[in-house]
Structures are given as C-alpha cells and as structure tokens.
C-alpha cells in the first residue's frame, strides 16, 4: 500500500523545506549499480589490487580535495545554522562515547584498540562517495544551501573524534609492542590528522573563502570543476572494489558484534541526531526545525566510510570484523536511506492520515508473528526444551508475544463500542507488550546467573523471576486502567491510546528493562565462568566424558594430572559433590552415568561459602530438574560435547539467547526513543511516522525475531520424521545404501584412494573413545572431526566438499554411523571405520 494517496507531499507544500523526491530513487539505484560494477570488476580480476590502489589514490588525493576546496571557498558562513552543526557534534560525540565505554566495560581482556576503532566505525559516515549524491538528488533544485552542510559535518569526525580513537589504538599497540613513547604517539596522531587530505583542504578552503571573497577565480574553478566531477563515479567504483574479499566467515555468534555496530551506526546515531536537533532547534520556525531534524536523521543513516577498514589494517585491530561490518552495513543502509528520504517528503496534518496504513501494517506483522510463535512452540515442545532453563523463560516470553499480537489483531478488526470488549483487547495487548519487555530482562538475568553463578542458583530464585515477568506487567496494566481510563485519546497507535499515562508507564518499563539487560549482559561478559580453564578441563577429563584413544592418551593423562595438581580445591569440591549426590536418599531416575554428573560441580553453588547442606539441597533440586528435562529425544548423538562447559553452553543455547536479547534490546531502544519524543513533542513529522511504523513492526513482530533465532532448531523434529519415513519405505529405521556393484566410478575411485593412501593416517588423527549418555563408543569419530581433517590435509577445500567426500565413503562402505541411523553429516554424530570383515558381510 502506497503512502501517496494518504499523505501529502512536501513538493506541493511551497515551504522552504521542499524536497525533490523524483530524483532520489534513480540516485540510490545509480550509486549501488556503480558499487556493484566495482565489486564485479574486482571479483573477476578485471582490475587488480594494485590498480585499485591507484584509483583510490586518485580519488582521495586529487578529486576529493578539489571538491572540498571549491565548495569551502564558495561557502557562505553567514547562512550556516550553527545550532544544527552543534547538534551533529553532540549526537556523534554521545555515540562515540557510548560505543567506546561499552567496549571497554564489556570486552575482556581490556582492548583500547577495539574501543577506539568501534567508536570510529559508528560515527564516521561515507559522506562524500555515497551521501553527497543522495543529498544532491534531494536538495540541489529545491534547497541547495543544505548541500553545504556535508562539507562542514565531515571534519567533525576527522578533526575531533577520530584522533581520540587513533590515540586509543596507538596506546593499545604500545602496550603490546612497547615501540614508542607518549610524545611519539601524540606526534603520530597529530601528524595523521593534519596531513589528512580532507582536513588539510578544509582548512585551506576556509582561507581561500576569505581571500577570494567566496568567488573562486575562473581558471582555478574550471580545473576544480573537472576534478570534482570525476569524484562521484570514481569513489563509488572504488568503494565496490574495496568490498571484494571483506566478508570473511563471520557467521553465527561471530555476527553479534557486527550487528551491534551496524545498529549503533544506522539506528542509534540517526535517532539520537533527530532527538538532539529537536531539543536545540527551538529558535527556528517549526518547518525549518522539522526539516533539519529529518536531514540529520537521513545523514545518520549513511553507511560507514571505507577508510575505517584502512584504520583497522594500519593498526592491526579487528580487521575481519570491521570488513564484515562495513560490507553488511553498506547494503543494510540502502533500504533505510530510501525509506527515510521518502518519509522526509511526508507532511502529517493529522494522525488519521496514516491510520489505515499503520493498522494494516501492525495487523499483517501480528499475523506473521503469531505463526512464527506457534512454530517455535512446536519446536520447543517436540524437543522437550521448554522444560529446561533458560528455555522455560523463553516459553513465557513467547506466550506474552502471542498475547500482544492477538490483542493487536483484535484491536485492528474490532469496531464495536462495547466497553468490555475494549477492555479485553487492551488487557491482551498491554499485558503482552509489557510482558515481552519484562521477560527480555528476565532472560538476560537468567543467562547472567547461569554463567556467573550456577543452575542451582537459578532454580532457587526462579519463582521471583516469574513473579517479576508476570506480576509487574499485570500491576502496570491494572494501574493504567485505574488512572488512565478518563484520559482516552484519539491515538491510532494502541501504544499511546491512554495518552500521557500510558506513554509514561511505557518509558518506565522500557527504561527499567533496558538497564537490567545492559547490566546483566555486562556482568556476564566480565565474569563468565564458562571458559576453558585448567580446573574445568581436569574435572571433565576426570569424570571420563571423553576417553582419548591411540597414542595421545598418555600425553593427555599427564596434562590432566598436572592440572589437577594446580587445582586441588576443584578435586575436593568434586568429591564432596559426588558424595552428596550418592547420599540423596530419594529414588532416582538419573543414573550416575548421566551427563548431569559430568557437570555436577559446575551446576551447583560455586562460591566458597556454600556449605554441605546447601550443596545437598542443590543436588536434590538438580536431580528433580534433570528427571523432568533429561529425555530430550530418541535420537542418539545429537550432541556430543567434549568438555563439561561445552555441554552447558549447548544445553543453555547461550549464543542463541544472547542474539535474541540483543535484537529485543534494539526493539526496546526504538520504543524508548519514540516514547520520549512523544512526551516532549506534539507535532508529528515524516520521520516520526517512520519511527512509529518501525516501533510497530518491532513491537508486534518480535515473534519473527524469535523464529529467526530458534525456529530452525528442527533437527530433533525432522530426525524423527526421516526415521519414520525410512521405516515405512525400507521397513527399518536405517540408511539404505546401494549395492557396491551399483556405485558410480567417482565413488569407487574416491574410496579406493582413501583406503590405500589416507585411512591409516586419518585413523591415527581422529579416532577416539567417546561417551554419550550411558554408553562408551570405542574407536569412533564425529562427522565434524572428519570434515575438519579432510580440509586440513587438502582432500577437500570447503566444508561442502568435505561433506560430499564423506558421503562417498559412506556409500563405499569405508565408514558407517555407529547405529546405522544416519547418512554422513557435518554434525557431531558418531561414525566408525568398517573393517574388511565387516565390509564383506555388507556386500
């Protein structure tokens, strides 16, 4: 549904804030097509790396300085809005400080280099190569004075903020290499700032502005014009060249930091810029203030400049991470810039102008969210994880999300005036929205306690966490009905239907839970006990979780003994826990060999002041917990972690929960910005409408976020289905292999080559004794181990090739799954090599 018939456009408004939107779409398309051409040219080798550096030198040493000098000479400083520039400085400085401080607090070990680099990444925009063409398309015809701000905004980062980041990176390098004194560090930073072409030409341009009296001589202007005209296409093409080879395997949990950096750059910076401009621009007319606020928001959405990757390479700090963030951020910014620029053209006379569109969007999002929540419900039920911690709190969060989405669906389609029906829909909606916020905080606290305390501690305090998650939203909903029923407003967004009181309570809920999440995650990161240490390693080996076979056993045994000597307390604690476990006098359904016993010491209280009585109570709670949650599936070897702490991480799904918390935290921050703006402003603008739509999508579409994190954890479900299908087709739940005489030539050759040249070497490298639950499997290996070995020795170049290689070996009867239930997978399933005698029996 288009906005055009619903909301009027600034182009017809006749004010000073006109925007020429007709050129925007072609400008964005043009920019990214040229970037794509540059990427293709670099990818296929049409332009080599050295040739690309030549293009980069031409752009940065000639074209950009000429463009800067020409425009700075012609700039009319009397027309500059210095309050607007001050707002940009404040917003960028706030984001810089926030990112740097959070990095220093959270990252362990302490890394000043990362703090400086991340802060630069989140504040240095691609002002000229990508930003200028878009601003030119929007304002060149209707408001050309706005274009001059880009030349004044760029030096803010280069002169003021970047030197702080460079100093931090220089100090970090000195701490590790001890190369230079403090004076040399300061000199290097100062020299880098002064010799930067942008900074240097900005200063020279200001001098030229005074000397030439804002009119460049004709001959010089022609030369500058030619070089300036060459800038846009060359810079965009060079940006595409720079993207080649930058996305280097940052997947899964490794994408958390890039996602956070992109969110800070593309969402936090524009939101904060918009807010600060609104606070400082009180002396301007309403139209001018709104226009500058939307301009600042659009500027904040520009992606990070490629030069940040050069900084990472120069200082050897987080190069792959910054490269991945830069590539992803550039393409994420495209739709965000387009939508933001489109919303800048919107004139909102009344919220009723966009009521239908907002309700339809919220309705569609809620339907999608309901479907996603029900799917994740099915996954949690089928796997049995819903009984576990922290999944039981995730289960409650999904319930709350379902309530809010159902409430939104009812609200969108309910046109009755009956008071009791209105109460029902708002109870569902408010209880669900507040509940999701609260359970986000609860999950963060649980994750923190699991990592710095123990599972036993969480079991002891879980009742209070449930009370907070369910009770706090219930109390706030009841309170809102008591104090806000007489203040019903005409708001179309149910988030503000009860006016000021609902907005204020929303700010309270969001603020409290944002603080809880940030504090919990910070404490978890700084004090995480689930790290590889000698104590953990010795304990897990002593419990016999993994029995190494072959020649490595003696060496590993000596290492274990050495570790045990260095940590006698862990041995004593483990022994006391085992005795407590054995002395519990109730009937047990969890035998001693259960994986619980492997990590028993990690799951009970870890503090030194825990007495025997408390430990016995913990063992009792843990036994009851494990009896209820042990039977996850009938699928053997679904996970076979080697160490106790790995078992805990896999069981808790800590990485998945962390990613979900960060996504929900982003949703809360967007909601908090919207509520704060609503408290202090009454006039809606196009950017406000954009934020309201974004908040609605986040609010009622969080089920989709949950689905993206947990909805694909379906191995347990599909494993059962495949086994049932195999039973129906083949009569047994085993893999059906073709006869050896029917194998293709490729499979035969691969098997013969492996059998003759590689099998012995492979056996020595990966065979070991592994235990899963009640049984020890001798001389086996996992599918993941074989894939790793194949890549290591060069028989495969990618994991996909290794997977195909392993499947050839399965069909050629070189190896088999230990129970015959699985084909070859790059998973921790157990496999064994088939001996000649076994092979003859299977022909």
Automatic annotation (TrEMBL):
Keywords, in A-Z order: Membrane, Transmembrane, Transmembrane helix
Keyword Transmembrane: yes
Keyword Nuclease: no
Entry superkingdom: Eukaryota
Region named Disordered: 541-591
TM regions (residue ranges): 24-42, 54-70, 82-105, 112-134, 146-168, 189-211, 223-244, 251-272, 292-312, 321-341, 361-381, 393-411, 423-451, 463-483, 503-523, 658-680, 700-718
Biased segments, Polar residues type: 577-590
Cellular component terms per the entry's GO annotation: membrane
SMART domains, alphabetized: DEP
Residue ranges occupied by any DEP domain in the UniProt entry: 761-835
One GO process term, biological-process aspect: transmembrane transport
Protein name according to UniProt: DEP domain-containing protein
Species the sequence originates in: Lottia gigantea
Phylogenetic lineage: Eukaryota, Metazoa, Spiralia, Lophotrochozoa, Mollusca
């Amino acid at each position: 549904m288009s906005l055009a018939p619903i909301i009027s456009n600034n182009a017809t408004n006749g004010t000073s804030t006109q925007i020429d939107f007709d050129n925007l779409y072609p400008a964005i398309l043009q920019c990214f097509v040229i970037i794509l051409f540059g990427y293709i040219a670099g990818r296929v080798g049409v332009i080599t790396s050295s040739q690309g550096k030549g293009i980069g030198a031409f752009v940065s040493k000639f074209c950009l300085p000429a463009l800067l000098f020409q425009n700075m000479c012609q700039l009319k400083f009397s027309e500059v809005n210095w309050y607007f520039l001050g707002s940009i400085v404040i917003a960028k400085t706030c984001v810089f400080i926030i990112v740097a401080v959070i990095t220093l607090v959270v990252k362990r070990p302490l890394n000043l280099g990362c703090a400086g680099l991340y802060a630069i990444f989140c504040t240095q925009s691609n002002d000229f190569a990508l930003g200028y063409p878009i601003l030119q398309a929007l304002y060149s015809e209707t408001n050309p004075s706005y274009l001059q701000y880009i030349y004044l905004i760029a030096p803010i980062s280069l002169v003021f903020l970047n030197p702080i980041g460079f100093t931090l990176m220089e100090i970090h390098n000195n701490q590790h290499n001890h190369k230079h004194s403090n004076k040399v560090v300061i000199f290097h930073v100062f020299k880098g700032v002064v010799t930067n072409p942008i900074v240097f030409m900005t200063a020279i341009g200001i001098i030229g502005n005074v000397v030439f009296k804002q009119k460049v001589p004709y001959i010089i202007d022609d030369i500058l014009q030619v070089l300036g005209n060459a800038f846009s296409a060359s810079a965009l093409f060079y940006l595409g060249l720079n993207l080649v080879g930058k996305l280097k395997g940052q997947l899964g949990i490794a994408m958390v930091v890039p996602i956070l950096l992109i969110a800070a750059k593309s969402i936090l910076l524009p939101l904060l810029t918009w807010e600060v401009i609104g606070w400082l621009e009180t002396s301007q007319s309403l139209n001018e203030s709104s226009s500058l606020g939307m301009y600042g928001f659009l500027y904040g959405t520009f992606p990070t400049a490629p030069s940040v990757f050069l900084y990472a390479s120069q200082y050897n700090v987080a190069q792959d991470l910054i490269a991945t963030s830069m590539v992803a951020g550039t393409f994420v910014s495209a739709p965000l810039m387009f939508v933001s620029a489109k919303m800048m053209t919107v004139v909102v006379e009344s919220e009723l102008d966009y009521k239908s569109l907002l309700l339809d969007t919220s309705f569609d999002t809620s339907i999608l969210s309901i479907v996603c929540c029900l799917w994740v419900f099915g996954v949690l039920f089928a796997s049995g994880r819903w009984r576990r911690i922290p999944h039981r709190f995730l289960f409650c969060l999904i319930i709350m999300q379902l309530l809010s989405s159902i409430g939104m669906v009812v609200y969108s389609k309910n046109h009755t005036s009956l008071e009791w029906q209105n109460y029902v829909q708002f109870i569902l909606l408010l209880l669900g929205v507040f509940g999701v916020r609260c359970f986000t905080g609860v999950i963060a606290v649980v994750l923190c306690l699991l990592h710095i305390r123990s599972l036993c501690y969480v079991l002891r305090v879980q009742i209070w966490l449930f009370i907070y998650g369910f009770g706090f939203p219930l109390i706030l909903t009841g309170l809102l009905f008591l104090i806000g029923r007489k203040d019903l407003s005409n708001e179309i967004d149910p988030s503000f239907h009860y006016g000021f009181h609902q907005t204020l309570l929303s700010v309270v809920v969001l603020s409290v839970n944002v603080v809880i999440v940030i504090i919990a995650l910070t404490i978890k990161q700084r004090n995480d006990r689930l790290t590889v240490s000698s104590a953990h390693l010795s304990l897990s080996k002593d419990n016999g979780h993994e029995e190494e076979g072959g020649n490595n056993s003696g060496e590993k045994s000596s290492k274990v003994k050495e570790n045990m000597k260095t940590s006698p307390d862990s041995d004593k604690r483990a022994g006391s826990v085992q005795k407590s476990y054995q002395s519990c006098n109730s009937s047990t359904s969890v035998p001693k060999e259960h994986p619980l016993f492997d990590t028993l010491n990690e799951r009970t209280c870890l503090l030194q002041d825990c007495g025997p009585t408390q430990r016995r109570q913990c063992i009792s709670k843990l036994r009851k917990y494990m009896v209820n949650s042990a039977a996850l599936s009938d699928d053997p070897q679904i996970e076979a972690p080697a160490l106790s702490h790995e078992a805990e991480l896999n069981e808790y799904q800590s990485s998945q929960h962390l990613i979900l918390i960060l996504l929900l935290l982003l949703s809360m921050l967007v909601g908090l910005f919207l509520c704060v703006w609503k408290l202090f402003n009454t006039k809606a603008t196009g950017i406000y409408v954009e934020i309201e739509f974004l908040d609605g999508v986040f609010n009622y579409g969080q089920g989709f976020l949950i689905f993206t994190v947990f909805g694909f954890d379906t191995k347990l479900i599909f494993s059962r289905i495949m086994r049932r299908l195999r039973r129906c087709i083949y009569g047994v739940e085993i893999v059906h292999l073709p006869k050896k005489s029917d194998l293709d030539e490729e499979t035969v050759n691969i098997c013969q080559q492996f059998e003759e040249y590689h099998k012995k070497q492979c056996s020595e490298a990966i065979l070991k004794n592994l235990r899963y639950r009640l049984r020890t499997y001798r001389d086996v290996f996992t599918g993941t181990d074989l894939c790793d070995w194949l890549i290591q020795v060069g028989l495969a170049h990618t994991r996909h090739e290794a997977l195909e290689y392993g499947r050839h070996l399965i069909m050629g009867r070189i190896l088999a799954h230990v129970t015959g239930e699985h084909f070859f997978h790059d998973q921790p399933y157990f496999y064994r090599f088939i001996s000649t005698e076994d092979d003859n029996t299977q022909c």
